[in-house]
Every structure is written in C-alpha cells, then in structure tokens.
Amino acid sequence: MENHTRISEFILVGFKSHPGSQVLLSVLFSTMYFVTVVGNICMILIIRMEPKLHTPMYFFLGNLSTLDICYSSVITPRAALAFLLGRRSISYAGCASQMFFFSLFGTTEAFFLAVMAYDRFTAICNPLLYQVVMSRRLCVLMVVGSYLSGCINCTIQTGFTFSLSFCGRREIKHFFCEVAAVIHTSCSNTLVNELVMLAVCGPIIVGTALVVFVSYGYIIVTIIQMPSAESRHKAFSTCSSHMVTICLFFGTVFFMYAQPGAASSSPSKSNIISIFYTVVIPMLNPFIYTLRNREVKGALKKQLKRKGFFKRHS
C-alpha cells in the first residue's frame, strides 16, 4: 500500500511540447466545449418541446445529447484551464475520478450508438412491428442497460489501473487520465492490466460495432429493394446522420482501444485522435443530426417562429 500512496498527484504533459500554442489550445477547447453544451442543450429542448419528435429514435437522440454534455464535461473544461494557466497537475483521486467517468460515458456512448442502429433496423426492416417492438419500456431498459454496461467497464478499468504502483514517474503523456496512458506511467508489471483492457474493451468495441454494421447491412439491402426513389430517399435520410456519427466514433475508438500498444507507442498521435472522440464528436453530433434531418430542422424552424425569430408572411 505504501507504493500506491507515494505519488499524491500526476502531471498531464499532453501538448506541452508546444508552449507557444497553449493559449490557442485553451481558446480552441473552450470554444468547442461551449458549442458542445449549447448545441446539445438545444437538441434536448427541441426534442422535448416538439410532440412529433416524441418517438423512440428521438428519445435515444435526446439521451445521446445528454451523454455528450457529460462526456465532454469530464475532460474539456479542465484541459482548457490547464493550457491557459499552465497548471497541469491532477491529484491521485482526481485522476481516478476522471478515468472512471470518462470510461463510463465513453462505453455508454458505444452502446447508445448500437441501440440507435437497432432502432433504425427495426423501423426500416420491420416497419409494421416497430411500435410493438420499440415500446417505451424497452427503450428505457436499453438506456439503463447501456449505462450499467458502462458502469461495469469503468469499474473494472479504474480498479485494475489504480491497483498498480506509481512510485517514480508522475508524468502522464496525455491531456487527461486516459487508461492506457496512466498504465504506461506505472512502475509495476502492466501485462495483466493490458490484457484486461484488451479483454474488456475489445468485446465491447467489437460487439457494439458488429451490432451497428449488421443492422446497417440489413438496412442498406432493404433500402435498395424499395420500389420508389422517394421511399429510398426518405429511408436513407433517417439513417445518414447516424452513419456519419458511427464512422467518426468507431473509427477513432478502434485505433485507441482495439490495439492498446499503438496508443502508448505514439503519444502525440494518441493525443490528437483523442481530441476527436472526446471533444470534436460531442460538438458535431447536434449539427450532424440537425442539418441532415428534416424533422429536426422542421421542429427547429417551428420553435423559432413561435418565439418570434421568424415572421410569418401572410
């Protein structure tokens, strides 16, 4: 236990090699965080205020927006402040907490994307059974199950990581307490931890991605077989925004966690890629779902007219 308490804090050295860009990084992170929070809150309000959007698809989308705010809040504000003030130290407990919540929200997001893919599969491939299958009860259970899966993963990851000894090096080659970067800082033998990370994260990433790609495989086949161009376009428009989000999220996560060695062997590349799934994707999601979705754009215009932003022409 003495070895575990020798270090009371860590130092996050991600992007420290570019001292002239610290203020720019702080402004960039702060701006992206502000856009993330405002964009996702607007998305939540639009869904709640528009009765036409009270469907399973938008129920999941509203929960995704809430999750994105939490996900970004764990990392972005603290990173922006560290870049601005140069205070890169983080307490042992603070690092453990950040890792716990980052793993919780990141894992939950992967399950959310899988659940949303299954929802689109049911809506397009089995439209007559959609209202029966995607009941309110099932939707709530899917959201709760996603969070429970996230809790299991983050408990295992954080527990195993902080059971290691940290007795010498305090520098974490990252801008937040990411699992692989913290493990790499330990003076213990980390083979078991790396195997656990691969054994736990691997099935989660592969499993959720498999649900997504199988669902969309069936969706694409069904859309191609539709008789009219109008019905094909309508079906595709409800899925295209989700497909963009899936490609962005799983593309970056596969690099980071499907091959743990890649993250530790190239810290600078790991830092840059991490920005995409921790900061950029939560910021882009509201725009992707708004700009590529007629129903959301229609609901947004309706609410703006109601508030007097647009005048109706007689």
Please work out how many helical segments DSSP would assign: 12
Biggest sheet features: 3 strands, mixed
Beta-strand content: under 5%
Query: How many whole angstroms does the radius of gyration measure?
Result: 21 Å
Q: What is the mean predicted local confidence, pLDDT?
A: 85
Residue stretches low in confidence (pLDDT < 50, at least 5 long) are 1-5
Number of beta strands: 3
Distance between the termini: 76 Å
Global structural class: mainly alpha
* Order of helix and strand elements from N to C terminus: HEHHEHHHEHHHHHH
Shape type: globular
**Helix share of residues?**
over 70%
Major sheet strand order: 2-1-3
Task: Tell me about this structure.
This protein is an all-alpha fold and 314 residues long. 76% of the residues lie in helices and 3% in strands. The chain is built from 12 helices and 3 strands, in the order H-E-H-H-E-H-H-H-E-H-H-H-H-H-H. It has helices spanning 2-5, 22-49, 56-85, 92-125, 130-133, 136-161, 179-185, 191-224, 229-257, 260-265, 267-291, 294-306; strands at 9-12, 89-91, 171-172. The protein has a 3-stranded mixed sheet. The longest helix is centred in the middle third of the chain and has 34 residues, at 92-125. The chain is globular and about 65 Å long. The termini are far apart.
